[in-house]
Amino acid sequence: MWLRPPLPLSDHPGPGGAGGDPDLRRRSCGTAWEGGDAVILANGALLPDSDLPKVLSGLEAEINHTRSASPLEAEAVVDACATLLDRLDQGELDHLLSRFATPQLLDTLGRYRHMLQSESLRYKLAVELDGLWTGERPRPFGRSVVLPLGTLLHIAAGNIEGLPAFSALEGLLTGNVNLLKLPSGDTGLSLALLKLLTDTQPDLAPYLYVFSIPSADRTSLEVLASLADGIVTWGGDEAVRAARSMAPAGCKLIEWSHRLSFAYVSGRPPEEEWYALARHILSTGGLLCSSCQVIYLDTDSLDDGRAFCHSFLPILERAAAACHPPPGQAAQATLHGYEHFLEQTVRNTGAQVFLGRGCSVTLCPDQELELSPLHGNILVKRLPRSQLFSVLRRQKGRLQTAGLLCPPEEREELTALLVRAGLTRITSAGTMSAPFPGAGHDGEHPLRRYVRIVDIE
Predict the structure, then answer these.
(1) In the chain, where does the domain assigned CATH 3.40.605.10 lie?
(2) Residues 295, 265 contacting (CB under 8 angstroms)
(3) What is the distance between the alpha carbons of residues 239 and 155, in angstroms, rounded to a whole number?
(4) How many Å is the Cα radius of gyration of the chain?
(5) Which of 143, 179, 331, 347 suits 86 as a labelling partner, its CA being 20 to 30 A distant?
(6) What are phi and psi of 189, to 5 degrees?
(7) CATH H-level, domain 260-431: superfamily
(8) Which pTM does this prediction carry?
(9) Residues of the chain where predicted confidence (pLDDT) is lower than 70
(10) Is 51 exposed, middle or buried (0-12, 13-18, 19+ CB in 10 A)?
């Protein structure tokens, strides 16, 4: 499997061997991944960043040529992904993973691996497009057909490596031309994945362009935006505002902005559920929209809150040790926890910080849903279910996942309450960030937003 512990770099074959494309190895690993010139992926070719003006000047003509022909077939993308998985399993990107992938990242990417499998992609198409992609549908006036939106500009977020590639993949599945802006600090895993994909199926190359344009280069970004029929934005409020300001009139805005997620605890769940929640907190580091930021307790008792923190901290410490973080990351988590402790002390917030090894638990006096200090440092707040709806509605439009820990007989009642409050995913404690084939993004099916329905008389 491609996410087994990667071989040391010296154990990989040299250029031209089973280690993969020597051009990719030489140009990508020696540039974007090692601090040199960034690279561009354009029509299947890796180009130096200095070619950006030339690429942008000819991009409209290239896109028009591609889109004037027959649309890309979804099955070609599905087959290419199956071949890509085979090549990854043979270790063609192990040289990157060995350098940049933490154990937590390997675990996360491993959970996303099945999303590239043929059956998962076909299921995604069937569920999200409700069978519309299979061909024309007869109508009383004639027929309807689903076609690509056209050209998508993806402005990717950098909270986890490799996810920008999945955004572009959704655009490919719907037959769009995709312009992908990588996030700052990207180590190049998405670029490498997409280069390998176009090598696997050259027919995809005209539908995929990848750029590492900095957000400050507004002139270049406005060129890309001017070519787009839709702008797909992943990120916070600032990124969304920037995309809106660049979007030309008539351009569709598709915003996957930051969301907040939490765990809700009622009763005394078994310890394995506590440990599953702790592993989730440590493995995601609080960096995903689906990451638990706050553990809400169905109580108003301060004594119950303290008792929970005393009990949960050793479980969180055990999960932190099991994650085997590299020394620098473990030190960073401890530093985050200590800084948070000092901040609460100086501000005299009334919060109680329970410091652990590589993690911390903070019992807060308020009920607001907010970001945690991240990296294994979690907030705990008391929120009786009678107050749950009104508190959560203060974050309307930003709610995503609730990990529910409760007795089986209470699950349906609490699920209904959370859904009415605006949550779009209800899961168990350990699967808050688990990907599910056909699942929505923030309550919507993304593929439906990347297509248009054409009625023909």
Answers:
(1) 9-258
(2) yes
(3) 8
(4) 23
(5) 179
(6) -65, -40
(7) Aldehyde Dehydrogenase; Chain A, domain 2 (3.40.309.10)
(8) 0.83
(9) 1-38, 96, 98-109, 111, 131-136, 324-349
(10) middle
Give pLDDT, residue 451: 95
**Cβ pair 76, 201 in contact under 8 A:** yes
185 DSSP assignment: T
Pairing of strands 45-48, 359-363: unpaired
CA quadruple 155, 158, 162, 167: dihedral sign? negative
Structure tokens at 135: 């061909």
Summarised one tens digit per residue, pLDDT across range 93-147 is 777 676 666 666 666 667 677 888 999 999 999 989 876 665 667 778 888 888 9
Give the Å distances, CA to CA, from 58 to 65, 194, 217.
11, 21, 18
Location of structure tokens 């929505």: 440
The DSSP bridge partners found for residue 143 are 138, 456
Token pair recorded at residue 327: 């020394």
Note whether 431 and 292 are within 8 A (CB): no
Q: Where in the chain is the domain with CATH 3.40.309.10?
A: 260-431
Q: Which fold has domain 9-258?
A: Aldehyde Dehydrogenase; Chain A, domain 1 (3.40.605)
